[in-house]
Amino acid sequence: MWSPPIAASSTPSWSSTLDSWTLWFRQGLLNIRWLGRGGLRVNRYWIWKARQAEAQKELWTDEQGYYFCNIVTVLPGEQGQGIGKQLMQVVMARADEEGRKCYLESSRMVPNVAIYEKMGFRLVREMRCEDGVEGEGCDVSA
Questions:
Q1: How far is CA 10 from the centre of its chain?
Q2: What are the pLDDT digits (tens) for 47-90?
Q3: Cβ neighbours of residue 67 under 8 Å, at least 6 residues apart?
Q4: How far is CA 91 from CA 16, 24, 83, 97, 100, in A?
């Protein structure tokens, strides 16, 4: 799911705010459905959101805003066929036409970062979401 660009100095519209809350709600339902499996338990979700806000405040410096790829998934049996790349290219082409930048975050360094780098993205920041449990936490790359 791509979020449309919002200028850094502007207030988000009601539509984009509703989209954000809808995404938040859906992520919460998935977390409940899968009982936090996949590394994002409820407490980590809030830690991740705080780290995400810090990173975006630091990195989102373009006044035009960014197309933000929040979620992209391809079913395991369908991976390696270019489906994810096609999903990404649609918005990336639009961003190029508009002269805007794209931004994404990845919860896995391997293999995701290498895949995104092939599409022209570059790693600019790593975030560690520690939740106080020894050996537990989540890493996010931006």
A1: 21
A2: 878 888 888 889 888 989 899 887 788 888 998 999 999 999 99
A3: 2, 3, 4, 5, 91, 92, 94, 95, 100, 101, 102, 103
A4: 17, 21, 14, 10, 10
Question: In order of start, what are the domains of the chain with their CATH numbers?
Answer: 2-141 (3.40.630)
The pTM (predicted TM-score) of the whole model is 0.71
Q: Under 8 Å CB-to-CB from 23, ≥6 apart: which residues?
A: 1, 70, 71
Rounded to 5 degrees, what are φ and ψ at 9?
-90, -5
